[in-house]
Amino acid sequence: MNILKYNTKRSKVYKLFYAVLPLLLLVSCNKEIENKAHFASTDDIKDDYSEKSYKVAYIVIEGAVGSVVATEATDYNKMPFLASMTSKGLFSWNSIASDATQDITFYADLLTGVKKDKHKVVSDDISGAAFDKYPLIFDRLKKDLGTRTAVFTSNAIVDKLSQNSTIDNKKVLASDEQVVQEAKTELKRDDSNFTLVTLNGADKVGKTQGYGPKSAAYLTALNTVDKQLKEIVGTIESRLNYNSERWLIVVASNRGGTYELDPIQDDHSLYSVPFRNNFVLFYNNQFQYKFIERVDLSDPTYDGSAIRYTGTATSAVIDADKADIYNLGNTVDKEFTIQMKIKFHNRGSLNPTFFSKMGNTGNSDDGWSFIHNGGIGWRLKVKGTQVIDNEVFNLNEWYTLTAKIYNDKGTRKAKVFRNGVLKAEGSINGVQGSSSQSLKLGSGATYGSGASHTITDVRIYNKALPDEYIAANYCQTAVYDDNIYWNDLIGYWPAIEGAGNVLVDKSKSKINFNITGEVSWNAFSERSGSLCPTAPQNLELSTIRSVDAPVLIYNWLGILGTDKFNLDSKVWTPNYSNN
């Protein structure tokens, strides 16, 4: 059950949904919620039930290096309580804080959900801050929900950032001990709703005695923080109405700290910059363990969540009036390369279509299509002419299929490749590859049925790529704007969004597929001999970041339609347990 799936307008039905939400969570049967990359645009909704029952504690541990915390967060090291929270947490130890140098910037990231190029906080002088466009979390909650907010800190930076905010209970104190005591008092209140707590003991020690795993004083300071964290969470969990409340507890560090990294841990990437290595954890007593691990740059996996297309129940469609650029034409001057990753789960009967811009592929209609060849191999069909790869597909195995349309000394020809290997070629000279049909992925009007497959990494180039390039690069799972053929892409759909009803086109064309019928997103993380997964262009996005916390907090507390806030937050959704 996806507690973040709010896709309708304000209504009485919606209010009823909120009222039964806890029951829905309890019957979630340990299934992963769909990951909404962008929440649907809706009216903001203030619901009495969510205001009273959904609550947040946001705890910032200053200067806590993520990788050091990861080592200490075990039942036998310095942070056993934080370790216990991971069993019901969604978290990353290898988060990458922004490329800032000032602590006030890191805090602005944590409290706005955007980075410095938007919030404009780059020094202690915050007169130029864009809080009118990107308000601090206290102000957003107060304005949209009327939420009670509280802040307890010993850091003057937090005080300065929030100097113009309306906060119901704000105290700037002399020590972490006082911060914890005041926070506990607040968290005992029936109307406690959003509470920010900052702890700077570890950072103070790190600045004077070192941050790394070899600093005994730093590890001791982390142990103290762990005990303070236990006190705070214990206060929440001892509330009289705790079992009927829904608490999201966010524990994060603002940044890491500088120390000399062991050479064996240094992969020369952003993961190896201790100052930027923070961590983020989302905890709720109904979450399941979910660790967002850093990308293994030496042997990465192909990760994502893709649609399983079964029979004709599901299709991704670009309407005909937007799909003209994918017409192949019938003249030698028009060259193309069409490529996709596909995994066949069921071959189906006869000749099911899985990608087409054609009418009925069982006839000789104008246009083109990719078709299962008798449930065995596959073929490119242009009008009534076919280029066939007859080799049998193994089920549940990734393949890269490529069709190349090119000019060979004045004759128009086509080649088909499987995993970069040329399988067949033939003439399509004068054959009409254009049609007035929509572009369909997954199924189409076809002579055959029952096929089931997963399709990702779909690319269409208005260029015939060299055979050598196809052979060398077919296994790559992504393409970025620094690629030599990027400008020749007229359609690029990674198709691993994991949620929603759209496959986003990353090419310059920006023509999205709309998904029709039954939508089933299936998460995967795989290694395969036919894949050489491409490392993310931006490693920061591969783990949970500081700016990612606000959007989950907003939706937890009932602010919807967060798309319009233009946040830099990426949505991470937890797994739920019925325990």
TrEMBL record:
Matching InterPro entries: Alkaline_phosphatase_core_sf, ConA-like_dom_sf, Phosphodiest/P_Trfase
Originating species: Sphingobacterium detergens
The name this protein goes by in its record: Type I phosphodiesterase/nucleotide pyrophosphatase
Coiled-coil region list: none
A GO molecular-function descriptor: hydrolase activity, hydrolyzing O-glycosyl compounds
SUPFAM superfamilies: Alkaline phosphatase-like (SSF53649), Concanavalin A-like lectins/glucanases (SSF49899)
Pfam families per record: Laminin_G_3, Phosphodiest
GO terms for biological process, alphabetical: carbohydrate metabolic process
